[in-house]
Amino acid sequence: xxxxxxxxxxxxxxxxxxxxxxxxxxxxxxxxxxxxxxxxxxxxxxxxxxxxxxxxxxxxxxxxxxxxxxxxxxxxxxxxxxxxxxxxxxxxxxxxxxxxxxxxxxxxxxxxxxxxxxxxxxxxxxxxxxxxxxxxxxxxxxxxxxxxxxxxxxxxxxxxxxxxxxxxxxxxxxxxxxxxxxxxxxxxxxxxxxxxxxxxxxxxxxxxxxxxxxxxxxxxxxxxxxxxxxxxxxxxxxxxxxxxxxxxxxxxxxxxxxxxxxxxxxxxxxxxxxxxxxxxxxxxxxxxxxxxxxxxxxxxxxxxxxxxxxxxxxxxxxxxxxxxxxxxxxxxxxxx
Length: 336
Description:
Blueprint: E1 7-10, H1 13-19, H2 22-31, E2 39-40, H3 48-53, E3 56-59, H4 68-72, E4 79-82, H5 93-96, E5 101-104, H6 106-125, H7 129-133, E6 156-161, H8 165-173, E7 180-185, H9 191-197, E8 200-201, H10 204-207, E9 213-216, H11 230-235, E10 241-244, H12 253-261, E11 266-269, E12 289-291, H13 304-318
Parallel strand pairs: 1-2, 1-3, 3-4, 4-5, 6-7, 6-9, 7-8, 9-10, 10-11, 11-12
Helix pairs in contact: 2-13, 6-8
């Protein structure tokens, strides 16, 4: 077993207070060298001698970019355990040039997003959006000519764009609802893995006209920016719902506004572009559009999962066991 390493948690004070409660701070202390200061909100403010000792960083929201200059001040750094999802804003080319282990809590962060997505899929099937967004709680959807026979969660098709950590979890969460058929579009997914999770893999152009709800779970990459635009939205059937919990940049908001303002489509947006939308943005004032303030991800007690994930990786590393969720440079080509 590796002797307890010198560990420093480098994340904002707000993130430290949210992610690491007293119990998780105590666990971190048991895994770190006894004399270590557990947390700093700024590595620039940390004492030079402290940085020279650091072997492990626990990072999270508000962590600095690990660039060449900072890494030169961390000569003993051997592992970084990220208590958050994406590592894109954390690593640099210089980081990958060094033999440093990196793990992410993206799998833990996927859980609340998938749960939010499941809830919104079921609510949208019952057409709960309109009565929730309007003062008329007695609005009779049964009389709505646009909805027709599409109300309900029986004989309904859900389209998942991106068989990511979250997309896969959503597919699995939909298993107990036999009235829902699930299609997946992802050029990198394995058809057998999709089928094992409970869905069918199809091309995006075939998925769009077949679904009652389109749920976005693709990463934000140059190739995916605006991937759901005017043509893709036009291909959706009348009365379909667009649900985005991924990144706002995946979706053409002007095209979405035109479709929702016409009443042809509904939308549920937990992410937008820009984020947040300006208060006078018309999407915020349509009764068939719900915008939530990026709350699908880890909030409140859910954030403790992120600490647990990072601490489990640190525990494994100290014990000489392999990491569960390592991140490699090549992974960033197709993930957030």
